[in-house]
């Protein structure tokens, strides 16, 4: 079954300046366990599309299903990794991760142990007692990923998670996240304007045309390349 199904979605923003067509008849799907990237220039509607799939905005037209269920609002089945890490500065790394579990009502002994295991897997165990300001940007992004993976979302949305990092850190983090998400067979949807990043990370790349965004082309990435 499909993890994500987007059916003929169009979206128009209306405000005091008028109406703006952001997305036009988007049709796409993501299979369970698949890693798909959405690539397109700034302003083509990538963030709008992710927000619609996540149930944060209702599309002007069309519909979205997550694991066969119509999306009518936000759901805990979706986890996020964003450009900013949104860590609490006055809490330790361990506390930041436990807050993620608490917000989801999942702060069981088992989940706490799983979270610490993920922290170890991401090479962050030694920093569990540190504060976000003591960590580099790449490390903080790893913490943000642990925080969301610990809640075991069924699908992960990554919205330009590498764009604030320097080139070396970006490559290292891409590799680590690639390995981690493959290992956990996590269904993932990455939004990026960087085609090289999309090819390196994905099973399939969906290219969006500039504003208004629509699916221009879909490219399967052979595993020998990925
Ligand atoms: P990006 O996702 O490309 O980093 P944003 O989503 O913040 O950037 O904004 C993209 C463009 O959308 C901006 O140039 C801005 O003009 C427009 N925009 C964002 N939010 C609003 C809003 N609330 N009202 C009108 N225009 C907006
Ligand atoms: P991307 O993430 O690909 O940069 P966005 O989804 O942020 O694109 O924006 C798509 C288009 O919709 C842009 O032209 C932007 O200016 C416009 N837009 C985004 N958010 C708003 C908003 N809240 N109100 C009005 N226009 C918006």
UniProtKB/TrEMBL annotation:
InterPro entries: AAA+_ATPase, ABC_transporter-like_ATP-bd, ABC_transporter-like_CS, ABC_transporter_ATP-bind, P-loop_NTPase. SUPFAM superfamilies: P-loop containing nucleoside triphosphate hydrolases. Residues 4-226 form the ABC transporter domain. Pfam families: ABC_tran (PF00005). Keywords: ATP-binding, Nucleotide-binding, Transport. It comes from the Bacteria. One of its GO terms (molecular function) is ATP binding. PANTHER family: ABC TRANSPORTER ATP-BINDING PROTEIN, TAURINE IMPORT ATP-BINDING PROTEIN-RELATED. This is ABC transporter ATP-binding protein.
């Amino acid at each position: 079954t499909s993890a994500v199904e987007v059916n003929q979605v169009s979206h128009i923003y209306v405000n005091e300046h008028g109406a703006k067509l952001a997305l036009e008849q988007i049709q796409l799907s993501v299979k369970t366990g698949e890693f798909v990237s959405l690539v397109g220039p700034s302003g083509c509607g990538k963030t709008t599309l992710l927000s619609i799939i996540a149930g944060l905005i209702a599309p002007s037209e069309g519909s979205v299903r997550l694991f066969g269920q119509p999306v009518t609002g936000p759901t805990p089945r979706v986890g996020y990794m964003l450009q900013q890490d949104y860590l609490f500065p006055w809490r330790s790394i361990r506390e930041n991760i436990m807050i993620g579990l608490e917000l989801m009502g999942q702060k069981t002994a088992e989940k706490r142990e799983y979270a610490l295991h993920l922290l170890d897997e991401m090479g962050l165990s030694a920093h569990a007692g540190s504060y976000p300001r003591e960590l580099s940007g790449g490390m903080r992004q790893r913490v943000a990923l642990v925080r969301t993976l610990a809640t075991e979302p069924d699908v992960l949305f990554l919205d330009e998670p590498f764009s604030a990092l320097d080139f070396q850190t970006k490559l290292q983090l891409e590799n680590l996240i690639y390995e981690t998400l493959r290992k956990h067979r996590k269904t993932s949807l990455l939004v990026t304007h960087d085609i090289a990043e999309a090819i390196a990370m994905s099973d399939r790349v969906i290219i969006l045309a500039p504003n208004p965004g629509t699916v221009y082309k879909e490219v399967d990435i052979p595993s020998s390349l990925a």
